[in-house]
Amino acid sequence: MLLVLGFILSAKLVWPATRLLYEIKRAEHVDIVIYGGGLAACAAAWKAASFASDKRVALVVPYIARQYGGLATVGGQNFWDVRYWSRDGRLPQGGSFAHWFYHTGPFYSPAELAKLIAKELEKLPNLVTLWGLDITAVYADAKGERLRALALRSLERGPEGYVHWKGKEKLLKAKQFIDASEDGRLSFLSGSGVTVGRADWPAVLLPEVEDPLGTSASRWKEEAAGYLLPEKLGFPRNWIELFTKDAVGRVFRERILQLGGYQELSPSISPGKTNRVARQQAATLMFKVKGVRPGLYKDMVFIRSPQGVWGAYGGLRTYRENPVVTHFNKTYGPQGFALKPLNAAQDGRDSPEWWVNSLLIFNVDGRAHFRDRGSSRYPLDKLPGTLETDEAWVAARQLLLKPDFIHALRQFPGFEEADLVKDSTGQPVTGDILYLRETVHQLRRGGGVGKEAGDGDYAVTALEVYLAGRGPGEGADADNYVNRIGLGFYWLDINGYRFEDLQGEDGAFRWPVISYLRPDFGQSLPGSTARPENPVYLPFEAILSPRFSNLLVPGVAASISSLAWAELRVLPNQAVLGDAAGVAAAYAVEQGIDPATWGPGEIDEIRRILVEKYGARVDKEFL
C-alpha cells in the first residue's frame, strides 16, 4: 500500500517537475532577451540587435496593444518631459532619444512615434518581437547567480477591463537579459534585490503607515504560515489549501530543477535588509479630449512646435483657487483621485483631439496585477488599501465619465469647451496602460548590507543629481565620471504619494509638492535656476543587478534612489539607459563575459561605441 501511495505521490509531484525541466532545456534559445515595450526597451533592442547583428535578440512586450513605445505611445504620453541646460541651451540626452525627438518635436502623435520606432526595429532581421506576453516564472542557474530562462504567457483584456492570462506558457532561454520594463517586473519577480517606492526616505519624513520596519518581512512570514485571510487579499477561499499543496510540490520541483542546473526564483525585496513598506508615486491615466482652444491665457501656455503640433501646460492658479476644481479634488481626493496642473498635446498636426496628463491616481501598487492573484508573483507586502493596476485603470475610466470630471476640467483656460473622446461603445479613449511614475528600485551592486536601505544604497543618489557639477572633477556626481555611460537631466518632479500631499495644514492646495515632502532638498522648485542646475553623470553601475551578473536594468527598476528617480524617471533619461544596456548586452554576448564582471576597460569600450556609433552624449563640456 505504501509503495502504491509513494508511486502516486511521485507521479503527481516528480513527473511535472521533470517535465518542466525537460521543457526548459528544449526551450527556444536566443542570445539576448529584452523585457519591456517602452522607450528604454526599444532603445535597448535597437542598439543590441544592430551592434550584434549576428546574434538573436528577442523583445518581449508585456502589454496587449501591438505598438512599440509603451507609455510614450500606447500610454498616450505625447508631451516630452525635457529640460534644456541653461549653460548652453541644449538637451543633454543623445542617442535614440535625440533621434526620436528630431523627428517628432516636443509634441507628437503616439501612433506616428510608434511607426517611427517600428521602421527602425523592423529593419533588423535578427530581432524578433514577442507581442502581448508577460512573465509567469524566472529561472536562474543552480547557484542563483545568472538568469537562464523566462516562462511567458499571453495576455488578454476581459470584459470588466482586467488583464487575464490566456493560453499555455512558453519558455525562452538567453545568455543576457535586460529588464527595460516600465514596472520593474523582471527585477521584482527574480528577487534581484529591490526596494519599493520611497523606502529609502528618512523615516521622519514618512507617514506612520509607511514608517514601521520589518513589516514586509513579517507579512511574508504570516503568508507562509497561512495567517492572512485570503478573502482580504482577493484570493480564492481555498487559497491556504492550494498554497500548501503548491508548497509541497515546489520542494520536489526545486530539487529536480537544481539537479538539472536550474533554480526557480521568487519575488523578494532588498535581501539582507528589513525595509519599511513604502508608497509609490501617484500614477496617471492619460485621456483624450476634443474642443481645446489654443490661445493667449494668463494661466495656461499654448505652444506650437516647428512640426505644427500644439502643446499646452499650466493651470496652477486654476488648480489652487478655482472653486469647481478645488471642490472636485476635495470630493474625489479621499477616494484616490485628483486633478493637477495639466500638460496636454495635440494628437499630431491638425488633429482635433488632444491627450491630457492631469488625472492623478493615488494608492496604486505598480507591482500588483489582477492576473497574479493567488500566486507567488503577487506582492503580499503591499500596503493596505492600495490598488492593483487593473483596479486603478478601471476605476479611473469610470471617474472620467462622471459629470463632475468634465465640469472641473473645463475650468482650465483653453479647455472650456472640451469633451471626452469616446469609442464606439461610449467609453472614454484612454491610455491602454497606466503611467506608473515609480515602482521598485534596484540596490547598488556590491553595496553593504545594512538594517535599512538609505539613499546611498543605490548607484545614483539624490545628492548626486541635486548637486551635480558642471563638468568632470566637480559636483556630487564627480565619482560617476569614470564609468559614465550618459547624462540625465530634468527637475526633481514628484507628483505626490497621497492626496494629503496636495494640501497644506490650512487646507489650501499647493503645487509643486516636493519642497513640502522633502524640505531637505528645498531648492527644487521648477525654474531655470532650480536645483538640479546641471545634468548628472549616469554611471554604468546604475543598470547593474545586485544579484545577477547577466541582468541589466535600464528601466523603472534601475539602481537609482527614490528621490533621484524623481528626476531620472522621465522617458528621455530612460532611453539613455536603454541605449547603454543594449550595447552592453551585445558586447557581453560577443565577448562571452557578463557585464557585472567588467572592469574599466570594458566600460570605456561601451562608452566609445555609444558615442562614436550611436551619438550618445556623455560629456558636459561638449554640450
Automatic annotation (TrEMBL):
<dbReference type="GO" id="GO:0046872">
    <property type="term" value="F:metal ion binding"/>
</dbReference>
<keyword id="KW-0411">Iron-sulfur</keyword>
<dbReference type="GO" id="GO:0016491">
    <property type="term" value="F:oxidoreductase activity"/>
</dbReference>
<dbReference type="GO" id="GO:0051539">
    <property type="term" value="F:4 iron, 4 sulfur cluster binding"/>
</dbReference>
<keyword id="KW-0479">Metal-binding</keyword>
<dbReference type="InterPro" id="IPR036188">
    <property type="entry name" value="FAD/NAD-bd_sf"/>
</dbReference>
<dbReference type="Pfam" id="PF12831">
    <property type="entry name" value="FAD_oxidored"/>
</dbReference>
<protein>
    <submittedName>
        <fullName>FAD dependent oxidoreductase</fullName>
    </submittedName>
</protein>
<keyword id="KW-0408">Iron</keyword>
<dbReference type="InterPro" id="IPR039650">
    <property type="entry name" value="HdrA-like"/>
</dbReference>
<keyword id="KW-0560">Oxidoreductase</keyword>
<keyword id="KW-0004">4Fe-4S</keyword>
